[in-house]
TrEMBL record:
Gene3D superfamilies: Glycosyl hydrolase domain, family 43 (2.115.10.20). GO terms for molecular function: hydrolase activity, hydrolyzing O-glycosyl compounds. Belongs to the glycosyl hydrolase 43 family. Keywords: Carbohydrate metabolism, Glycosidase, Hydrolase, Polysaccharide degradation, Signal, Xylan degradation. This is Glycosyl hydrolases family 43. GO terms for biological process: xylan catabolic process. The record marks 152 as: Important for catalytic activity, responsible for pKa modulation of the active site Glu and correct orientation of both the proton donor and substrate.
């Protein structure tokens, strides 16, 4: 592949139209970018979207991705390298279908790729694969992480070295089917009734070996400013999928997608387990059904990686982008209008 690098800051095309940012890669479709800085370089762990010809539905069956490519760049705005296939679904012994949004971590000389995929019973679980290189190839563990569920793993390591995995997504992500603690394949509800509390994402501390959970998975509460849990009907604020945790000035920022209302929003707290109090919108809707993001610092600047459908105009063929994230003096963000 010969990837095309693209400028990330606002530029004007020949018609004078302003673009906030351009697709980072144009020769394959990529989405759900989890960005990390390892050894001074930016590595992006995205989904690799492909055309499968499957009809669109609310379960996202048409998102039938089969492998991961890892991207890297020395700096935002610089050349982007596509490192080719880092993990293929055929090399994951327990996988059935749909390799969705991954994340990565580095500890004790090893790189860990965390990925959601449906098992052979069609239940989303989170798997882990390891490599000595940030770009792979990655070798998958023989089984999913015990106790893992749903989609969209996001891994955060705190200052004390403890690492936490956030996970979950409703509708196609199956989180609602775990409401009772065990998986209920017959739950067709998609989410709780409008007057009930919205489902929270899940979190668990990882063991020292980064391959298993050190504790039972728990639900993360997202509250309004009066301290009340957000309701299921509160669709512009409630958690849908795509959680991400970062820390800034000692505060924990949990950001996520509201899914069917197409926003990226954030909530803050004083513990990695939450509760988190809803604060506001980071990014207004992009072109496409929804976006999925990550937040990372490089050389004192903060960036948000996300996706839209600029290249294809099809919700299932997405392209990753990046733009600078601007903070406000009160600890919030300037809302991005992509
Ligand atoms: O890429 C498949 C799914 O779409 C992800 O897991 C969600 O976050 C959404 O972006």
């Amino acid at each position: 592949a010969t990837p095309e690098a693209a400028a990330s800051t606002a530029t004007a095309d020949t018609t004078g139209k302003k673009y906030l940012s351009k697709p980072l890669l144009k020769d394959i479709y990529t989405a759900d970018p989890s960005a990390h800085v390892f050894n001074g370089k930016i590595y992006i762990y995205p989904s690799h979207d492909i055309e499968t010809g499957m009809p669109e539905n609310d379960n996202g069956d048409h998102f039938a991705m089969r492998d991961y490519h890892i991207l890297s760049m020395d700096s935002v705005g610089g050349a982007v390298t596509d490192h080719g296939v880092a993990l293929d679904i055929k090399d994951i012994p327990w996988a059935g279908r749909q390799l969705w949004a991954p994340d990565a971590a580095f500890k004790n000389g090893t790189y860990y790729l965390y990925f959601p995929v449906k098992d052979k019973q069609d239940v989303f679980r989170i798997g882990v694969a390891t490599s000595t290189s940030p770009t792979g190839p990655f070798k998958a563990q023989p089984k999913p992480i015990e106790g893992s569920l749903s989609i969209d793993p996001a891994v955060f390591t705190d200052a004390d070295g403890s690492t936490y995995m956030y996970m979950g997504g409703i509708w196609g992500g199956q989180l609602h089917r775990w409401r009772t603690g065990s998986y209920n394949a017959n739950d067709k509800s998609q989410e709780p009734a409008p007057t009930e509390q919205a489902l929270g994402p899940r979190v668990a501390k990882l063991s020292g070996n980064m391959l298993s959970f050190a504790e039972p998975v728990r639900e993360v509460k997202i509250l309004d400013k009066e301290g009340k849990p957000l309701l299921s009907s509160d669709t512009k604020r409630r958690f849908f999928e795509g959680g991400w945790l970062h820390k800034y000035n000692g505060k924990y920022y949990f950001s996520y997608s509201t899914g069917d209302t197409h926003l990226l929003v954030y909530a803050t707290g004083t513990s990695p387990y939450g509760p988190f109090t809803y604060q506001g919108v980071i990014m207004n809707p992009v072109q496409g059904w929804t976006t999925h993001h990550s937040i990372v610092e490089k050389n004192g600047k903060w960036y948000i990686f996300y996706h839209d459908t600029e290249l294809s105009n099809k919700t299932w063929l997405r392209n990753v982008k990046v733009t600078e994230l601007k903070r406000t003096p009160d600890g919030g963000f300037e809302t991005i209008n992509p």
